[in-house]
Every structure is written in C-alpha cells, then in structure tokens.
Amino acid sequence: MRDLMDMHTHTLASGHAYNTIYEMVKEAARKDIPMLGITEHAPKMPGSCHKIYFMNLKTLQREIFGVRVLFGAELNILDAEGSVDLPEDILKQLDIGIASIHPPCYHGGDAGTNTRAYINAMKNPYIHIIGHPDDGRFPIDYERLVTAAKEYHVLLEVNNSSLSPNSYRPGARDNYAVMLKLCKLLRVPVIMSSDAHTAAALGGHEEAKQVLKEADFPEELIANYSRRLFTEYVPKAE
Questions:
Q1: 3-class DSSP state for residue 12?
Q2: Span 17-76, pLDDT tens digits
Q3: Is residue 125 in a domain?
Q4: What mean pLDDT is reported for the chain?
Q5: 176-to-171, 186, 191 alpha-carbon distances in Å
Q6: Confidence of residue 108 (pLDDT cuts 50, 70, 90)
Q7: 203-208: long-range contacts at Cβ-Cβ below 8 A with a sequence spacing of 24 or more?
Q8: How far apart, in whole angstroms, are the C-alpha atoms of residue 226 and residue 36?
Q9: How many domains does the structure of the chain reveal?
Q10: Residue of 178, 107, 104 lying closest to 138 (CA atoms)
Q11: CA distance 34 to 237
Q12: Residues 109/139, Cβ–Cβ less than 8 Å
C-alpha cells in the first residue's frame, strides 16, 4: 500500500534541524509524499522557537509544491499531570499536535509516573499523536498506554528515528514489539513517522515498516495508508 504521509518532521526553527520549510516540502514533492507534517519542537526544548512562532503559523500556505502541509508542534510533556509547553489558545490554532517525552524537559520517574504523564497528555483534545513512546530511559506500562490511546482517540507513533542504528533511545525495537502486539489485540491504530531533522531523512519509514511487518500488524490500522483513517484522528487534515 502507498505511504501517504510523514507527519513528524522538523525545520531550522526547531534549533537542531537543518533545512527550511520550503526545502522540506520540495523534498516531499520529489519523493511523491502527498501529505507532510511540520511539527517544530515547542518552546521548552533548548534552542527551539518562541510561542510567537506557533501563533503566526496561520499565515502559511497549506498547499506548497502540490503537497498538503500541516503545521503544528511536537509538544514537550513536562510532568505526570501531562502538562505541555504551549497554552490552549495557541494549541487550538495548530493543524496537528504531537506530545513527546524528551530528557531536557521531563525528568522522568518510574513506569507508573511516566505512564500517567502520557495518559494525562492524551486527555488534551489538541494532542493527536503520542511521539516515540519507545524510549527505554522512560519505562511505561504499555497495556495502560494502548488502552488509553483507544479511549482518548489518539494515534501512537512508530518512530523510524528511534529504530535507526544510531538512535539514542534504548530498547525501542523491543518496546515496539510489546506495544504493537497490544495495539493489534485492541485494534488501536498507529502512525509511522520519520522524525526527520534533515530533508534527506524525510519519508524514511523503512525501519518502522520492518517492525510492523515483524509484528504482522494489520495494514488497515496504519494511518499512513488511509487518509480517511488519519483524518478521523486529525480533523484539520481534511
């Protein structure tokens, strides 16, 4: 089936990525990827952009070089209450919201604490995807995570960057095996993302596809293959 999208990517604005918006979209067009998400790191990530950057995303075109572009944020989960680093008045203007745990912004805890952080973030109506829930440095209860994703109608990401040989997130492959088994059992959809910080990495889902294949994961539960399924979770993608 055709991979229609890459919804987790970064540009120069994130502070540690290396291409512009137009370079990223041009690469998506070159690779025949019809939908692209540009999700800059939210303000608590060191070196990233100010909240005013996200307030001004409304000025950007949503179709560039024939590619449908969604502009949003990769929000930082800050604590066990699931707090994130942009306020509601800005979140509701975004096309897409991803919430992730990053070491500079979240200090971690035991599996119960980390799981509560993810679940409480899912309760936020402006969060559509949980980013890279795979990092062995932050253990979680995958049964509770997957059950909550079903309850709160949030996509769980299979992050290609986490699975790459030079990834700094330990245990991702084994953690995805557990998560995907539960997603398959409970019929919870997932989304593959590159987490690209360069144009060259955009659309790179090879490792994610391999993990999904090893899990014998149903194609109808992979949002990349169905715009209809994706828009059920991200309404502004219509």
A1: helix
A2: 999 999 999 999 999 999 999 999 999 999 999 999 999 999 999 999 999 999 999 999
A3: yes
A4: 97
A5: 9, 15, 12
A6: confident
A7: 203/3, 203/6, 203/27, 203/28, 203/31, 203/33, 204/160, 205/3, 205/6, 205/160, 206/160, 207/160, 207/163, 207/164, 208/158, 208/159, 208/160, 208/163
A8: 14
A9: 1
A10: 107
A11: 12
A12: no
- CA-to-CA distance for 208 and 34, rounded, in angstroms? 19
C-alpha dist (Å) from residue 110 to 71, 115, 117, 141, 187: 33, 9, 11, 10, 27
Q: Which domain holds residue 177?
A: 5-212+224-233
CATH number at residue 61: 3.20.20.140
Enumerate residues 6+ apart whose C-beta is below 8 A from 55. Answer: 90, 93
The one-letter code for the residue type at 208 is A
Q: How far apart are CA 149 and CA 41, in angstroms?
A: 22
Give the model confidence (pLDDT) of 112-162 as tens digits: 999 999 999 999 999 999 999 999 999 999 999 999 999 999 999 999 999
